[in-house]
């Protein structure tokens, strides 16, 4: 029998007392901040505080006599171990017979009971789903209360770091120019005001950056836009003299981050309001909805106009991105050499290998931060797409098999992302077959030509075809957009064949940046992913229309030790040789060490 976890049980009892005091019968705690960021700061780890489970995805539901935590298959074992003795029941999402949270609430809540949650950390889609699923019951809602405030006495502070200004020269377009385009779209949508909640969109629009979300150079913020005002809500302590002077100069009106709800509740509405439900938390959306109804105007749910503007990079952004990717590729090339030279000769783990690469990147001029925590996975660990080694839990890298490293950084001038799977010892013929097909898929997509108007769904099969012919697939998208000195995962475009109902398909346009990352994952054996970042470019226009394609931004060698030519057609061999020719031509001028340069010449030889 598991030892009782008195710490968690005590916290839950205090939470239940706070629930009773506030008239809440069931209380929900998800994993999110106020803007649905990819990474949640310690301040927002309420679910972890009340159940002990610290995985990146999970939702805790508590009543007076029940506590249940829902998570996905990545975390079943971890959650079970971390919640032993807490009295919290694990609900294994998508397993047969396991109800969703909404189904559980419908089955267990009584008419007249109150469902509570902090509406600032619940997305509008999730909040509306609860309302819809529970519509057959007389359930009441309390969504404006963060009960952790009453219980978590030593709660970490809200992230708060100095903001900084990017020059117009670095951004290619001024805030004034970008704002004019946003206002033009507002007119098209018939709106006189626009509330913007998406952090990277706000940063892109204002040419400001921050450090409030791990690996994302953004500040916690909201923006309220009309035709004669631009109000930016940020924490006062983050506003440096430089930022304040810039805002005064360009006409950005600064208000405190915590004032946004009062502002929305009181601001005069003289026309329709634009708000993208996908990017707005439930409390903010419901408050806006009530206000627009009171004012007799419409709340127009349209996509944030900044989204596509941000995705199509301007000429300055593209120039800087190309330069940054080349420098980043040089670092990765040197790292691959270091791994191959030292494996089996010095102590090396997944974690220390990642530390080595992170340190090499940090030495580059203009380095800001990693764009995501480096994934370093050896042998069978690489078969787990979300694997993360830690200092205390990392496999030793030996002179056998392969090491997968997925990494990137944000620099002044761009954000990078790249994956290479490196041969460090003997590998099987099956691994070579899978590796060769993965490389062929990456190069097939990168060299594809397609009609203007195609989306990522149209081109995804280029990357999968060699694997599909072997009866193999990978269970993730092939590509995602990437920000400019912003988030490494950026929409609206992506490359994937499977689209769920309601998902938006964005047309690929010249100037977009997207990853190209097919893979093979064989549980208990090996994992392979080869990822280049490519730029959407115009190829030709003729009587049939406008044709587009991709240009490589990543120039790092493919491991020829894992290539088996018998699985390749002459055209495949030509693509690999051409790519390696470009790698050597572009990377070698930046390598001073003759041993590394000699190795690179051999690593990029024609086969």
TrEMBL record:
Give the matching Gene3D superfamilies. Creatinase/methionine aminopeptidase superfamily, Creatinase/prolidase N-terminal domain
GO molecular function annotations of the record: metal ion binding; metalloaminopeptidase activity
Provide the Gene Ontology terms for cellular component: cytoplasm
Keyword annotations for this protein, in alphabetical order, are: Aminopeptidase, Hydrolase, Metal-binding, Protease
Instruction: List residues of the Peptidase M24 C-terminal domain.
Output: 547-607
Q: Which family does it belong to?
A: Belongs to the peptidase M24B family.
The protein's name is: Xaa-Pro aminopeptidase
């Amino acid at each position: 029998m598991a030892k009782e976890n008195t710490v968690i049980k005590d916290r839950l009892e205090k939470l239940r007392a706070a629930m009773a005091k506030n008239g809440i019968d069931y209380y929900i705690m998800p994993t999110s901040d106020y803007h649905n960021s990819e990474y949640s700061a310690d301040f927002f780890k309420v679910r972890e505080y009340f159940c002990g489970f610290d995985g990146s995805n999970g939702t805790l539901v508590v009543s007076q006599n029940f506590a249940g935590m829902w998570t996905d298959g990545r975390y079943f074992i971890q959650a079970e171990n971390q919640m032993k003795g807490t009295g919290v029941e694990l609900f294994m999402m998508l397993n047969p017979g396991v109800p969703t949270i909404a189904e559980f609430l419908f089955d267990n809540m009584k008419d007249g009971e109150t469902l509570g949650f902090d509406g600032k950390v619940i997305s509008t889609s999730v909040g509306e789903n609860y309302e819809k699923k529970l519509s057959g019951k007389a359930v009441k809602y309390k969504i404006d209360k963060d009960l952790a405030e009453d219980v978590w006495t030593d709660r970490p502070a809200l992230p708060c770091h100095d903001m900084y200004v990017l020059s117009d020269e670095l951004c290619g377009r001024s805030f004034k120019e970008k704002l004019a385009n946003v206002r033009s779209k507002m007119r098209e949508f018939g709106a006189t005001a626009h509330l913007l909640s998406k952090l990277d969109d706000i940063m892109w629009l204002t040419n400001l950056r921050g450090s409030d979300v791990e690996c994302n150079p953004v500040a916690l913020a909201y923006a309220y836009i009309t035709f004669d005002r631009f109000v930016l809500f940020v924490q006062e302590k983050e506003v440096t003299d430089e930022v304040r002077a810039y805002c005064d100069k360009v006409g950005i009106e600064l208000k405190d981050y915590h004032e946004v709800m009062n502002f929305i509740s009181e601001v005069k509405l003289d026309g329709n309001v634009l708000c993208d439900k996908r990017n707005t938390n439930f409390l903010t959306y419901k408050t806006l909805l009530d206000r627009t109804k009171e004012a007799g105007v419409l709340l127009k749910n349209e996509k944030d106009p900044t989204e596509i503007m941000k995705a199509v990079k301007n000429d300055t952004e593209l120039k800087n991105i190309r330069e940054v990717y080349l420098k980043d590729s040089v670092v990765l090339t040197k790292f691959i050499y270091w791994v191959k030279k030292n494996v089996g000769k010095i102590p090396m783990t997944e974690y220390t290998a990642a530390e080595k690469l992170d340190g090499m990147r940090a030495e580059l001029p203009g380095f800001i931060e990693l764009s995501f925590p480096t994934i370093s996975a050896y042998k069978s660990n690489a078969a787990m797409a979300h694997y993360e080694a830690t200092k205390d839990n990392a496999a030793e890298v030996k002179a056998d098999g392969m090491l997968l490293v997925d990494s990137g950084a944000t620099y002044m001038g761009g954000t990078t992302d790249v994956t290479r799977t490196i041969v460090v010892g003997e590998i099987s013929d099956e691994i070579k077959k899978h590796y060769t097909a993965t490389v062929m898929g990456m190069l097939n997509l990168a060299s594809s030509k397609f009609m203007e108007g195609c989306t990522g769904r149209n081109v995804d099969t280029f990357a999968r075809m060699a694997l599909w012919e072997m009866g193999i697939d990978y269970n993730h998208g092939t590509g995602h957009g990437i920000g400019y000195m912003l988030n490494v995962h950026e929409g609206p475009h992506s490359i994937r064949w499977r689209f769920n109902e309601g998902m938006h398909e964005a047309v690929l346009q010249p100037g977009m940046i997207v990853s190209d990352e097919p893979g093979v994952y064989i549980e208990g054996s090996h994992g392979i992913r080869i990822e280049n970042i490519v730029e959407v470019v115009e190829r030709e226009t003729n009587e049939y229309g406008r044709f587009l394609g991709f240009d490589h931004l990543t120039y790092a060698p493919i491991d020829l030790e894992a290539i088996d030519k018998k699985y390749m057609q002459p055209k495949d061999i030509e693509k690999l040789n051409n790519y390696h020719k470009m790698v050597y031509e572009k990377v070698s001028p930046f390598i001073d060490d003759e041993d590394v340069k000699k190795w690179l010449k051999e690593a990029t030889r024609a086969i």
